[in-house]
């Protein structure tokens, strides 16, 4: 680039001198003109080289800093274009670092979360095939193998979906849908997974143009999480805003926008459970992307003593001095907001 700048400056300075010299002194001998032109050409080239270095000093300095990986700090004499370029490089490096951290988290997930059920399944299979187990114990081992396999397939499916939803838009095929019938189906399907001490309620009516398969999946994800962490009650409701899943569990440990991200590089606590790096927020991310594909969003709030308060903070622990039946009930509520719900 410096050579091109030097050539341009040289031509701009040398050509006018040639024209002026020839027209002003037509009687000067050719040898004298030639020597004069060589001197002028040398001076023009020298000026062009010096000026190009001055003009490109900020660019050359930025190139050196980029090569050494230290280009975040601007200089007082940086022009606006260099400042913009420096900012672009900094943003690009930040995104690359984030992607690398997420890739490492994804690999950690493969090593840890996929390896654990595979090892358990291997041990159970070995016991099933080599030990003289009674029929009742063999059935119990077989059920454990099935549970581990289901857990493994669920995790693989969630990782695949999260990766696909992150890389491309979610394709929806909307049809008029009875939202009450949809949540009734989800509740009926998950009834077998509901612990004896839990109660699963269904409430509300409404219709909307949605993709029933994707919406069923989103509501199922939220309901499974609610059933996992609820103390006594889980409620699925159709409201004018969309579909709400409410439970009396501990709630989220931080802002939803931070937790609903795929392949986080750090372990995260969600609803009181510690997730390993890479798996935190997979389900919430999938639900949020499905809601966004329908033109809505996923919202989280806490309801305290019958009043909902929107918050991004972890729930405060109850007062230990109060008896259990006198403590206010905190509810965790996720709202899968839809653009238009009709009665």
Concise synopsis of the structure shown:
It catalyses: ATP + protein L-histidine = ADP + protein N-phospho-L-histidine. Residues 109-317 form the Histidine kinase domain. With 343 residues, this protein is α+β, with helices and mostly antiparallel strands.
Q: How would you describe this structure to a colleague?
A:
This protein is an alpha+beta fold. Helices cover 55% and strands 15% of the residues. The chain has helices spanning 2-24, 30-55, 57-68, 80-112, 115-130, 135-167, 179-190, 212-229, 256-259, 282-293, and strands at 175-178, 199-203, 207-210, 233-239, 242-247, 268-270, 273-275, 297-304, 307-309, 330-337. β4 (233-239) and β5 (242-247) form a beta hairpin. α6 crosses α10. It is elongated. The two termini are 67 Å apart. 23% of the residues are buried. Residues 305-319 and 322-328 have low confidence and may be disordered.
Low confidence ranges:
305-319, 322-328
How many separate domains? 3
Mean pLDDT: 77
User: Which structural category fits the helices and strands?
Assistant: alpha+beta
Instruction: Work out the helicity level.
Output: 55-70%
Radius of gyration: 34 Å
What about the largest sheet? Answer: 6 strands, mixed
What is the H level of CATH, i.e. the homologous superfamily of the largest domain? Histidine kinase-like ATPase, C-terminal domain
Order of helices and strands: HHHHHHEHEEHEEHEEHEEE
> Remind me, CATH topology of the largest domain?
Heat Shock Protein 90
Beta-strand percentage?
A: 5-15%
Number of discrete helical segments: 10
Termini Cα gap: 67 Å
Give the CATH class of the largest domain: Alpha Beta
Question: What general form does the structure show?
Answer: elongated
If classified by CATH, what would the architecture of the largest domain be?
A: 2-Layer Sandwich
Number of strands: 10
Q: How are the strands ordered across the major sheet?
A: 2-4-5-10-8-9
């Amino acid at each position: 680039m410096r050579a091109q700048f030097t050539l341009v400056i040289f031509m701009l300075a040398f050509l006018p001198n040639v024209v002026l010299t020839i027209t002003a002194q037509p009687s000067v001998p050719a040898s004298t003109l030639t020597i004069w032109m060589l001197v002028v050409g040398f001076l023009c080239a020298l000026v062009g080289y010096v000026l190009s270095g001055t003009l490109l000093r900020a660019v050359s300095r930025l190139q050196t800093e980029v090569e050494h990986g230290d280009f975040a700090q601007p200089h007082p004499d940086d022009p606006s274009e260099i400042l913009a370029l420096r900012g672009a490089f900094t943003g690009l490096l930040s995104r690359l670092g984030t992607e690398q951290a997420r890739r490492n988290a994804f690999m950690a997930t493969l090593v840890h979360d996929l390896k654990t059920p595979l090892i358990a399944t291997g041990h159970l299979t070995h016991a099933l095939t080599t030990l003289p187990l009674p029929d009742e114990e063999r059935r119990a081992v077989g059920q454990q193998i099935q549970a581990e396999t289901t857990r493994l397939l669920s995790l693989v499916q969630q990782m695949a979906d999260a990766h696909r939803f992150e890389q491309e838009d979610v394709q929806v095929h909307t049809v008029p849908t009875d939202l009450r019938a949809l949540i009734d189906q989800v509740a009926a399907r998950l009834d077998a997974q509901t612990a004896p001490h839990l109660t699963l309620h269904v409430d509300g009516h409404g219709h909307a143009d949605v993709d029933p398969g994707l919406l069923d999946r989103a509501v199922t994800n939220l309901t499974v999480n609610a059933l996992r962490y609820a103390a006594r009650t889980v409620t699925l409701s159709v409201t004018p805003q969309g579909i709400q899943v409410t439970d009396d569990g501990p709630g989220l440990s931080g802002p939803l926008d931070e937790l609903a991200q795929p392949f986080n590089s750090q372990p995260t606590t969600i609803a009181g459970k510690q997730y390993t790096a890479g798996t935190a927020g997979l389900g919430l991310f999938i639900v949020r992307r499905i809601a966004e594909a329908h033109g809505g969003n996923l919202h989280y709030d806490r309801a305290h003593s019958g009043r909902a308060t929107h918050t991004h903070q972890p729930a405060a622990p109850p007062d230990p001095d109060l008896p259990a039946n006198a403590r206010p009930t905190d509810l965790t509520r996720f709202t899968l907001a839809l653009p238009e719900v009709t009665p």
